[in-house]
Specification:
Blueprint (H helix, E strand, L loop, with lengths): L3 E5 L4 H12 L3 E6 L2 H10 L3 E5 L5 H15 L4 E4 L17 H26 L4 E6 L12 H24 L3 E6 L7 H8 L1
Parallel strand pairs: 1-2, 1-4, 2-3, 4-5, 5-6
Helix pairs in contact: 3-4, 4-5
Length: 195
């Protein structure tokens, strides 16, 4: 109640579900997404949800999101690093995955979470808070046909542990946890079922 939350990839799927639940529990939520039309539609439909366009792989976008959140709400209590992509090409096995696809998936799924944690910790270290990184069961169990995706989500799992220990050792009162969903009935989940 009365918390300020940021949810990346919040215009649809799991991110939208998280944002709606946070609002139900009394939070004010800033969703970010690359899909401007969907984000604006959500903002218009729900009073306690605000929207900013955001490419999580770009550091300047993170700087802008955190700056806007602090200017508008004066604090950030919760950050949910949810934005992610599955693939950019048809095939994602070790023999056929291109370096370009590997880098594209990691730029969103790994780099985006790294940047979120970096700027989230900076915004929260004086007041405390909670960072929740959405990983995947693919970050724990091998998925040979989604090699770039699985590796990116494994990176999220390990990054989360390091951020949690960092905050604890410095007394920042920032929790950092990862969540590892299985296949969920979303647009991305439907893509997984085709692999």
């Amino acid at each position: 109640n009365n918390k300020i939350a940021i949810v990346t990839g919040g215009a649809q799927g799991i991110g939208l579900g998280i944002a709606q639940k946070l609002v139900d529990e009394g939070a004010t939520v800033l969703i970010t997404d690359q899909n401007i039309e969907l984000g604006q539609n959500v903002e218009q439909a729900v009073n306690s949800i605000h929207f900013l366009p955001h490419d999580v792989s770009k550091e300047e976008d993170w700087e802008n999101v955190i700056k806007n959140a602090l200017q508008k709400f004066s604090k950030v209590d919760i950050l949910v690093n949810n934005a992610g992509i599955l693939a950019t090409e048809e095939n994602q096995c070790i023999e056929n995955t291109s370096l370009a696809q590997w880098r594209a998936v990691h730029s969103v799924n790994s780099d985006g979470v790294f940047l979120g944690c970096k700027y989230g910790v900076a915004a929260m270290k004086a007041t405390g808070g909670s960072i929740i990184n959405i990983s995947s069961v693919a970050g724990i169990v091998a998925v040979p046909d989604l090699i770039a995706y699985g590796a990116s989500k494994g990176a999220v799992r390990q990054l989360t542990k390091s951020v949690a220990v960092h905050g604890g050792r410095r007394g920042y009162n920032i929790r950092c946890n990862s969540v590892h969903p299985g296949i969920v009935s979303t647009r991305m989940g439907d893509q997984v079922m085709k692999v």
